[in-house]
Amino acid sequence: MNGTAAPRQLNPCNECPWIGLTRRVSVRASERPSVTGVGGCYMFAIMPEQVALDSAQADSPGEREQLRQMFASAPGFAALLEGHDHRFVMANPAFTDLIGKRQLIGKTFARALPELAGQEFAAVLDAAAISGEALVESKMSMRVVRSGGMPEEVFVSVVFQPLANAEGKTSGVFVQGHPASDDQRNTTIRAAHNKVLELAIGDSPLETTLSELIRIVETTSSTGVLGSILLLDPDGKLLRHGAAPSLPPPYTAAIDGAEIGPCAGSCGTAAYRGEPVFVTDIATDPLWAVYKDVALPHGLQSCWSTPIMTRGRKVLGTFAMYHREPREPTLRDLTLVDLVTQTAALVIDRERAQEALRNIATMV
């Protein structure tokens, strides 16, 4: 901490759920460049007086229950951790949603959220507990494990407020914040998309470029999606492996060379029809009758496939989004599908045009 930095005052939001049990808190900006003040309605992050951290000094049961109810109804995420090992005492539904609906109460931070060890969240939590000063993070990146067991990057704005016991020593940390706006996620998508185009222009192998494109979806999705691109062969009958950086290799090998048709899973049917095919439950959908025994052993339970097409409506391949649970696509999912299919069409079309030129050159 920089002891000469001017305190930054947190201003309470008019809708603060803690009004009546709160006091004002001054926050000093960390000397680390990534730590900045947070503005707007996030400023309801003012802290309960001691929040009854010590059981010996706990408020009455009624007041304690009132505090728990306010935790549950708070518009942002909130958690209370005690002791040097940061043991969870309270965590509201918004916090458990953030980290994947896991049992937290009574567990240490390291045991409950092992994937956060070594990440900035854990480092700032430790720093706040050691320094005894509140730390504010704006648009902090966190990689958490939520649905499907796949890591997912989320961005949060958060306050880490140390709380003192009767002796004035730090006995816990109150963590409260909210998901950052989509600005950071959109910035990440744009940067990743630019990288894909740079790879294509630089004549990187097609699979490398398409894998990078798929990772845009996998790293920005909130649903643990696994992406795949299949390429339609020149005869227009078979789908060949294009890229699938996160799908199980045995599965990608099994579907390589699958024939398209009116009842050929999601991808084979989408390529045959020339239109999206969204299967929400592989186990029961008739389109997967022949292929479900290939997908289900790998934990793949839904598959949404969209044809990749040229402007002239010629099918080049398919882009598929798999999940490890039955689910329907959201509006955000569909937006990402458009980005991937349009970019993939440009990349694949360019690759095939260059291949044609190389073939002509060898004939001359």
Describe the model:
- The chain is of the alpha+beta class.
- It contains ten helices and 15 strands.
- The protein has a six-stranded antiparallel beta sheet.
- Helix 5 runs antiparallel to helix 6.
- The protein is elongated and about 85 Å long.
- The N and C termini lie far apart (70 Å).
Question: Mind sketching the topology for me?
Answer:
Blueprint: E1 7-9, E2 22-23, E3 26-28, E4 47-48, H1 61-73, E5 77-82, E6 87-91, H2 93-99, H3 109-112, H4 120-131, E7 135-145, E8 151-164, E9 170-179, H5 182-201, H6 206-220, E10 226-232, E11 238-243, H7 249-255, E12 258-259, H8 265-273, E13 277-279, H9 292-295, E14 302-309, E15 315-323, H10 331-363
Antiparallel strand pairs: 1-3, 2-4, 5-6, 5-9, 7-8, 8-9, 10-11, 10-15, 11-12, 13-14, 14-15
| Anisotropy-based shape | elongated
Mean pLDDT: 77
Strand content: 25-35%
- Give the end-to-end Cα distance, rounded to a whole number of Å: 70 Å
Task: Give the helix proportion (percent range).
Answer: 25-40%
User: Largest sheet, if any?
Assistant: 6 strands, antiparallel
What is the radius of gyration? 25 Å
Count of strand segments: 15
Q: Give the class from helix and strand content and strand pairing.
A: alpha+beta
The order of strands across the largest sheet is 12-11-10-15-14-13
Summary keywords:
single chain; 364 residues; alpha+beta; 6-stranded antiparallel β-sheet; 5-stranded antiparallel β-sheet; 15 strands
Structure summary:
The longest helix has 33 residues, at 331-363.
